[in-house]
Amino acid sequence: MKLLLKKAHSHFYRYSVGFFFYLFWPLLYYFSRKPERYKTMNFFRKVCSFCSSAISGIFYRMAYEQPIDWSRTYIVCPNHTSNLDISAMSLMVKNNFCFMGKEELMHKPVTGLFFRTIDIPVNRESKMSSFRAFKKAGERLQNGVTMIMFPEGMIPDDYPPQLHQFKNGPFRLAIEYKIPIIPVTLADTWKLLWDTGLERGSRPGVCHGFVHKPVETAHLNVEDADALRDEVFRIIHRKLNSNED
What phi, psi does 36 have (nearest 5°)? Predict the structure, then answer.
């Protein structure tokens, strides 16, 4: 019975995401037509994220190691265990932003509009697709758009989830464009909704996250990308372990 209720809740959450997306569809479509309107498009993405979560009884609480200066551009690197992570990051970032994610998201009903416009799709099996995606990401960063990149590259299959090896892309990009990285530890989004929620369902509650202080990259060279990747991994891994104690 408990699993049945959790699955019913996950369907309610999915339908609420669709409901608010299509409620705001005319505005989202209008603001998606020109890049200079993407910031307003992101505002409505935040509204959709908050409303669809709140009506399902899901809320987000972020603690900060230090205040973040949102007048700067960042690469935000959270761990990834749940579809709720996208809403959590959309609500957390206070300046204009975009996601980089798998190419399949272009063809999903809700994420498709974003990944055909403001967000950056990438086929990691194709070197050409990766090159184009990272070139576009560099252009966005130079224009003051914060990038949100999940360094694991996917939601891992193991349950309970473990932190998996990070990919190099975000860290090479950060060094090349001298952009600070903000590591984010999402401690328990998976406890409310793991992955898509279709297998184990979901439940109301509060998702807790910890926003670490930015890791500066201005003094680094491309050869330091592996060390930077490992440093960010250790920061998030250490925080996840401390939350389990």
Answer: -70, -10
For residue 66, what are its two tokens? Answer: 């230090």
Which residue pairs, CB below 8 angstroms and at least 24 apart, start in 50-55? Answer: 50/87, 50/91, 51/16, 51/20, 52/13, 52/16, 52/17, 52/19, 52/20, 52/21, 52/87, 53/13, 53/84, 53/87, 55/16
The CATH architecture that domain 2-244 belongs to is: 3-Layer(aba) Sandwich (3.40)
**Do 173 and 147 form a contact (C-beta atoms < 8 A)?**
yes
pTM above 0.90, yes or no: yes
Tens digit of each residue's pLDDT (9 = 90 or more) over 84-95? 999 999 999 999
Q: 23-66 pLDDT, tens per residue?
A: 999 999 999 999 999 999 999 999 999 999 999 999 999 999 99
Domain boundaries, the chain: 2-244
Q: 146-149 and 120-122 as β-strands: parallel, antiparallel, unpaired?
A: unpaired
Residues 6+ apart with CB under 8 A from 76: 89, 92, 93, 97, 146, 147, 148, 149, 181, 182, 184
SS3 at position 206: strand
